[in-house]
Amino acid sequence: MKLWGGRFSKNASSFVDEWAASIDFDQILYKDDIKGSIAHSKMLAKQGIISKEDQEQIETGLIQILLEIEDGKIEFTHELEDIHMNIESILTDRIGDAGKRLHTARSRNDQVATDIRLFLKDEITNSIKFIDELRAVLVKIAKNHVDTVMPGYTHMQHAQPVSFAFHLLAYYEMFTRDKKRMENAYESTDALPLGAGALSGTTYDTDRDYVRHQLGMESLCANAMDAVSDRDFAIEYISAASICMMHLSRFCEELILWSSSEFSFVEMDDSFSTGSSIMPQKKNPDMAELIRGKTGRVYGDLVSLLTIMKSLPLAYNKDMQEDKIHLFDAVETLNTSLKVFTEMIDTMSINKDYMRSAAKKGFMNATDAADYLVKKGIPFRQCHEIIGKLVLYCIGEDLTLEEVALDKLKEFSDQFDEDIYEHIGLLACMDAKQSVGSTSQVNVRAQIERAEAALSE
């Protein structure tokens, strides 16, 4: 019999029971549900709402149920709808009236909201840990490639020479902001709904602050109706997860390009690659492609939850049962993607020679040649035109700027001198960048030092 069945004269059809039940996906909350119920029972006993003996039976029974769930000895049923009703029903079957007293002064509405918040707090902590591990690997690789020259791109065209370390540190900054977004989501999640009841509080003399301390929550949800009727904290997490997945996807796109024969900048380790069923020569960066694809999945979770919540009147509505599918999927997808990605880049091979060879193409030192003339007193726009014409000449002659003889350079501007060649070498172009945050080796090492200090905190 359903725990709320007293009002009804007939049972729901078995089809409706199965279709409406959430036990298939919300059973993941069993630890959080039991943890919340034990804290709630302790508060009830402390306040004299139930006896100490009943509380002890409840706690002992719940701990035993937890152990049996983890040993795979308990089978949940669709008839009891969700993890909360399943656990309470099992407990009541075992300890009788004491189990029936557990739900005093609470509703499934505040119970569910509490379970989700407890679950998400742990998972945000995991997300932050995985982001930190990725940031650490990026810095570790960057330290070994401060002088590894590669093309910097805009519009996917060669732009200016940069170091591979500099490129990696750009992603380090993105993931650092992802971490901050996760920390903000954690703060939003770290508030206790339990004690809100169905929507308006409870008539019992409860001690919500005691429960808050028991569960390690930072604050109380201040308004009972808000406590049970919003999922903005979950939306905030999935939003942060979506942005983080976007950064992973952009990085994966580059790794996929760099793995191609046309680039050959990197090669994925065999353990993160697959082959072809028909082409024996193939080595595919499938893990990077999967992460790129799974990004759309997390975007879908965000849009789905926003859509579920967008027109719901206060307070709780059954629509909100669908929140968990999307939250759980986003959590699992982000955290596994971070783990796979971190191990993938930590084990990949980096081809410095191919990077440098590519950096020699595309006249990426053209801006530096223009800056050289600027320092001779020529206005920048005029220098831009001079170097543009020089580049056009080089294209026609199949030359790089460094290969043009000095007497030919002087045909374009008499301000060119022997020292021009010192200014347009690849490392010289990089090291000429003096602004804070630039690609010069001095600035990149400073960025690495700051990152290492941040990671050690």
Summarize the structure.
The chain is mostly helical. 62% of the residues lie in helices and 5% in strands.
* Average pLDDT: 95
CATH class annotation of the largest domain: Mainly Alpha
- CATH H level of the largest domain: which superfamily? Fumarase/aspartase (Central domain)
β content, as a range?
A: under 5%
- CA gyration radius, whole angstroms: 30 Å
Distance between the termini: 54 Å
What's the number of helices?
20
Class computed from helices, strands and strand pairing: mainly alpha
Helices and strands, in order, run as HHHHHHHEEHEHEHHEHHEHHHHHHH
Looking at the structure, what is the overall shape? elongated
Low-confidence stretches: none
- Number of domain modules: 3
CATH architecture of the largest domain: Up-down Bundle
Q: Count every beta strand, where a strand is a DSSP E run of 2 or more residues.
A: 6
Helix content: 55-70%
The largest sheet, given as strand count, sense and whether it forms a barrel, is:
2 strands, antiparallel
- Spatial strand arrangement across the major sheet: 1-2
Explain how this protein is built.
This protein has 20 helices and 6 strands. The protein starts with 13 loop residues before the first helix and ends with a helix. With 457 residues, the protein is mostly helical. The strands form 3 sheets. It has a two-stranded antiparallel sheet with strand order 1-2.
